[in-house]
# Entry
Amino acid sequence: MLFNSLEFALFFPLVFFLYWFVFKNHLKAQNIMLFVASYYFYCCWDWRFGFLLAFSTALDFYSGLAIDRSSTKRMKKIWLIISVGINLGFLAFFKYYNFFIESFAELLRGLGMSPNYSTLNIILPVGISFYTFHGLSYVFDIYNERIKPTTNIVNYTLFVSFFPLLVAGPIERATHLLPQVEKPRKFNYAQAVDGMRQILWGLFKKIVIADNCAFYANQIFNDHGDYSGSTLVLGVLMFTFQIYGDFSGYTDIALGTARMLGFELLKNFNYPYFSRDIAEFWRRWHISLSSWFKDYLYIPLGGSKGGKWMRIRNTFIIFIVSGFWHGSNWTFIAWGFLHALYFIPLLVLDQNRKNIDIAGGDRLFPSLREFAGIVVTFILAAFAWIFFRAANIGDAFSYIGEMFSKFSFEMPTIWPVTLIWLIIGFMIVEWLGRRGKYGIALIDHALTIKPLRWSFYFLIIFAIFAYGGSEQEFIYFQF
# Structure
């Protein structure tokens, strides 16, 4: 069930009505209803996935209780290892089994052997990387005595399976979401309106920007040998805006949907394409994943305490693991490795925390230095997206080689004028609204005259219906 589908357009209003008008003032009933709705939402992809989600949830719930009740550090660690081992074992099997088999066979062929092997026809459960990391953060936090485990399995199940974030994040922490699950929630009109506004902006990002960009990105990447260098550059730009519109659009819809139900989820994007260096980019892109790796991998490895060489080592580990998290393809590992290379100069020169504030501050335009930083960072990120998008490493290098060898300052063979203007307008709105939680969060303050404000909303709705691309599945559902 996609957020941009007719099924969800029928599903969510029903959930909203039952939640606020039938089960209002009954926290337990609300949570049970949301738990049932979440499992229905998830099982719409494949009902068999629900059993794996339920098993993972039960494993972490009881592991958390066992860790807390264990009297010795050794027993606590045993229960932690059991939970982490089984969770990562399932993740490795479903997501990486064929990758490991094929990679090992390729290695043997490189050594002159002729391995006889077979792969499995494995269906990847939607969102397995996301809900696995939800559960792992819970048991890690209990083991490190940051939280006490909940004894209410319904509340914990809702924390893991809450449908707005279930299949593509953000990756929530029990310290943030579980207290919201456990306390009564009252309908807040202003909060609901703000949620609807964020959903609208997310739909615009997904349907108008991402889905249209996907059409051209797929066309150019799939047949890149047939196009000029300038057209290949356009293909990279199309995918660059596709993946941002797609993933941040999903996040906006998820956060808006949750807000309409009285929940505040973690912010996952903070205008990353306005970053002035790669370190800032990673503080603004997929924030929940970056912070997860920082808290549960980078810091346990020693963080920044062991000098520059340890920081460099840990940085490479984080980025390579982050790339591997995204999928079973060497392209993702290359993407992570490339970002680590981008990051190292900032680390060596102690410049990785230089740009903390928002680009441009309260000014309408950024300074020349800020603008140059934004452009360079955008180019670096866009170049790395080639590896993320390519089918394999060879295809990525082929694309890059053709892009440079065939480049000339001529108009691309493909030039979608309307879409380019829509992207420009989209980025202008995001720039003007960059101090808000999402692009149009501050529109009430910017357009104080109600008819102007509503005209702006109707313009977005018109664009969704008039310029919406063909329905595309969200990119991050595959992770």
